[in-house]
Amino acid sequence: MNRLAPIAAFCVALLLAGLCLGAGAPSGSIPSTPENGDWMIDLLNAEPATLNPITATDASASAINDYIYESLIRRNPRTLKLEPVLAESWEISEDHLAYTFRLKRNVRWQDGHPFTAKDILYSFDRIMDPRVDAAHLRNYYQDIEKIALLDDYTVRYHYRKPYFRALEFCGGIPIVPAHVFQEGEDFNNHPIGRMPVGTGPYRMLKWETGKEVTLVRNENYWGNRPHFDRILYRIITNPTAALQVLKQGGLDVMPLTPIQWVKQTQNRRFQEDYRKIKYNTPSYRYIGWNNERPVFSDRRVRQAMTLLIDREMILNKVLFGLGTVVSGTFYVNSPEYDKSIKPYPYDPKSAMELLKAAGWERRNGDGPLMKDGTPFAFEFLISSGSKFGEQLATIVQENLKQVGIAVSIRTLEWAVFLQRIEEHNFDACTLAWSLSWESDPYQLWHSSQASDKGSNFVGFRNKEADGIMEKARTEFDAEKRIRLYHRFHAILHEEQPYTFLFSTDALVAISRRFQDVNIYAMGPDPREWWVPKALQKYREP
């Protein structure tokens, strides 16, 4: 599943496989086996709207829920293969229409109730309930005909037609405890959104709005004991303030902005306390044009917007060249991304020709761009705390002003910003997508996802594109699927529902006291991290 993130929120993603980073203490003082204790203090640069794993859509909620909730299977960060978690084993029918999972019998929810197949059925029913805010998930399960409970610990999914990612989504379904919900309750606003109950290695201790979220080790966890006593997330939306907290020792992990990476973390003391890590990320930043707004309903206008934005200049000036300009929705280093499709250049002359063809003209040299007596003007929405978003919007505002287009910038808190986006109540916005290991663009681009709080919030609708995405879902031959996606890439390039910006490098500072900070193809796995007793900073009260 693709996760929505504030424009500066990337911390973990696609990395250099096999890199291991020590903590910087003398090698003779590091034990040969991991030791338990200490806390990990991480940064949230946006407060989650909810921690209900079925309705949550943002990267902040995903980061927290990864420690609280579990599913039937997961992708091993070392091998990239799917492996059991709450499932004991699974079977797939030859026709790819039936998926049977046998569950572990020793798992309990954090309130002591046993975990059973009934929880899976309840969670599936909530995902498919149109009253539940789960459109971002619903599309992945829409071809499931039914779920059969063979007994309390065996569940079978029946598909109407094959789906190449069926195992991943059947096994990766977000699961909530059925027993905590009462019939007739409002699922979207249930208290579990603030006080989650999972099966995972950590449980919620407290959530102080605007300040921090604290998780404590689940001492009754069914699996291997985690190393840290607590994981604490500090909510700091301003990256400059967050860096000051980091330098004072109040954070252990933090994504750095490019200017922080290049200019603000070079001193000796910082290098002694933190290790800086840079790696590629399966993600991209973009400007979304609301295709349902009359001003952006014409693809020639959207193409012109891209031609009027000097992405190479922005990448080099604002991001210090730490990324790659992209032309489509797939991860730039994946085979699904068609490298023969080059990003549009910065070309104001061609842009003005397209705008004129679409009916927009500037009647005098310095007047506004007009069509049918209406000036070209729109509002650019950004989330607070996004320094890059502010810089980007300001550059776009100035560039478009030169050709007679008026841009007003509005900054909103993340929760309000997200609500406006989901309701399609915006002209243009800037955001980022964190991508899955395997590509399925249906969630972001299929026309069915352009309503009911779906992820296609720019309202992109294209019959040929819909057909390609539908066909690709049933294609198990990877090469054939890649060819379909290359055609889809070409359609997006022509239609420009987004101005695709950059696939950027992840820039992260990690405390040197942490051991076994391994960097895998899907990113680091903090569950492996630990701190030698001699270097531990925090003790349980």
Précis, in short:
With about 550 residues, the chain is α+β, with helices and mostly antiparallel strands.
Topology at a glance:
Blueprint: E1 3-5, E2 19-21, E3 39-44, H1 59-68, E4 73-75, E5 82-84, E6 87-92, E7 98-103, H2 117-128, H3 135-141, E8 144-151, E9 154-159, H4 166-171, E10 202-208, E11 212-217, E12 230-235, H5 239-247, E13 253-255, H6 258-264, H7 268-273, E14 274-280, E15 283-289, H8 299-307, H9 311-318, E16 323-325, H10 348-357, E17 361-362, E18 369-371, E19 374-375, E20 377-383, H11 387-401, E21 406-412, H12 414-422, E22 428-434, H13 442-445, H14 463-473, H15 478-495, E23 498-500, E24 502-511, E25 517-520, E26 523-524
Parallel strand pairs: 3-12, 20-21, 20-22
Antiparallel strand pairs: 1-22, 2-25, 4-5, 6-7, 7-9, 8-9, 10-11, 11-12, 13-24, 14-24, 15-22, 15-23, 16-24, 17-18, 18-19, 25-26
Under CATH, the topology of the largest domain is which?
Answer: Dipeptide-binding Protein, domain 3
Poorly predicted runs are 7-27
> So what's the CATH class of the largest domain?
Alpha Beta
Strand % is: 15-25%
Main sheet record: 6 strands, mixed
> Rg, please?
24 Å
Count of domain modules:
3
CATH superfamily descriptor of the largest domain: Dipeptide-binding Protein, Domain 3
CATH architecture assignment of the largest domain:
Roll
Report mean pLDDT, rounded to a whole number.
92
Straight-line distance between termini: 38 Å
